[in-house]
């Protein structure tokens, strides 16, 4: 670091700083997220420096060698021309000297232009390196531009990773929502099926509410207690799953006893052929039998659990 700036090599260390909270996330991924939200113009960085990738493949040392080789070659051509000129008059039809003189003249002009451009390139490169706080005599063009080339590649890869992560998150959220909706739908259907089953069984067996508001007998009059017991037996059968087994047989027996009790009471009132407390004793016996049946149900439920 230099003051409030940073060395160029630090750019490629952003991808090495990994997050401890999110696996696979680096400081470069976070930087890309910030740029995408607040500095979208920076996403065009590669368009602003399109020649960086090509420049990163240029070696200044190799270019120096090539320039020196061309300079030596032109000098050799000049010596060869001078040797043939001083050797005496050329033979008739020998065009070596005219052709080589023309070639040497044109090549020398083009080489001079090349040398000027080469020197201008080195001057501009040194200025660019110093603008970034680096030393042009130490940092070569392939190293300098290679830093930008590597950073642009890592930057593009981080953008691709962030996009893939966003798509994966959206797919997971969509899958989670679909699973929740399916679970809610299943619960709703199960609840409706359970309610419909209870209503259907009660309707088929002729079970009626004993609420006084509906005109039925209250528990104090002797009918409500029996109906409540029958409803409890029905609920027990539904919960244990024994809808068509012993629980329902017991439910039918209790209803039959209640009907017989009601008929016996009516006959006593008409003809006085039964004792006054006969119906009451039967109801008490029926109640005790239901209590014993419920106790057996509870024991059976405990054993199943």
Detailed description of the structure:
The structure is a single chain. The protein has nine helices and no strands. Residues 208-225 and 264-278 have low confidence and may be disordered. The chain has helices at 27-38, 45-48, 52-55, 60-86, 96-131, 141-204, 224-240, 246-271, 278-304. With 305 residues, the protein is mainly alpha-helical. Helices cover 71% and strands 0% of the residues. The chain has two domains: 8-172, Methane Monooxygenase Hydroxylase, Chain G, domain 1, CATH 1.20.58.2220; 215-304, no CATH class. The longest helix has 64 residues, at 141-204. This is Blast:Disheveled-associated activator of morphogenesis 2. Residues 196-214 have a biased composition (Polar residues). Residues 1-181 form the FH2 domain. It comes from Drosophila guanche. Residues 225-256 form the DAD domain.
Give average pLDDT, whole number: 78
Number of helices: 9
Report the sheet-strand fraction. under 5%
- Uncertain parts: 208-225, 264-278
Name the CATH class of the largest domain.
Mainly Alpha
* SS class: mainly alpha
The structural domain count equals 2
CATH superfamily label of the largest domain? Formin, FH2 domain
Can you write the helix and strand succession as a string? HHHHHHHHH
Largest sheet: none
Q: So what's the overall shape? A: rod-shaped
Briefly characterize the structure.
The chain is mostly helical and 305 residues long. The protein has helices spanning 27-38, 45-48, 52-55, 60-86, 96-131, 141-204, 224-240, 246-271, 278-304. It folds into 2 domains: 8-172, Methane Monooxygenase Hydroxylase, Chain G, domain 1 (Up-down Bundle), CATH 1.20.58.2220; 215-304, no CATH class.
């Amino acid at each position: 670091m230099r003051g409030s700036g940073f060395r160029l090599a630090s750019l490629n260390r952003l991808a090495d700083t990994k997050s401890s909270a999110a696996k696979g996330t680096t400081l470069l991924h976070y930087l890309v997220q910030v740029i995408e939200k607040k500095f979208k113009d920076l996403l065009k960085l590669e368009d602003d420096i399109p020649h960086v990738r090509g420049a990163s493949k240029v070696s200044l040392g190799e270019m120096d060698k090539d320039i020196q080789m061309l300079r030596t070659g032109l000098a050799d051509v000049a010596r060869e021309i001078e040797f043939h000129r001083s050797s005496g008059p050329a033979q008739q039809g020998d065009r070596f000297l005219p052709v080589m003189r023309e070639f040497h003249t044109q090549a020398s002009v083009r080489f001079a232009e090349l040398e000027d451009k080469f020197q201008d390139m080195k001057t501009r490169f040194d200025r660019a390196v110093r603008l970034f706080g680096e030393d042009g005599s130490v940092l070569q063009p392939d190293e300098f531009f290679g830093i930008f080339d590597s950073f642009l590649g890592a930057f593009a890869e981080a953008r691709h990773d962030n996009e893939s992560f966003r798509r994966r998150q959206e797919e997971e959220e969509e899958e989670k929502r679909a699973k929740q909706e399916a679970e809610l739908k299943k619960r709703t259907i199960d609840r409706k099926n359970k309610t419909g089953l209870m209503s259907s069984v009660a309707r088929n067996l002729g079970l009626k509410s004993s609420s006084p508001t509906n005109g039925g007998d209250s528990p104090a009059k002797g009918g409500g207690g029996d109906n409540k017991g029958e409803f409890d037996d029905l609920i027990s059968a539904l919960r244990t799953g024994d809808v068509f087994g012993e629980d329902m047989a017991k439910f039918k027996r209790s209803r039959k006893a209640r009907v017989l009790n009601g008929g016996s009471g009516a006959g006593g009132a008409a003809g006085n052929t039964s004792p006054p407390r006969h119906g009451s004793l039967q109801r008490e016996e029926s109640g005790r039998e239901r209590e014993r049946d419920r106790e057996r149900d509870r024991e059976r439920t405990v054993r199943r659990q």
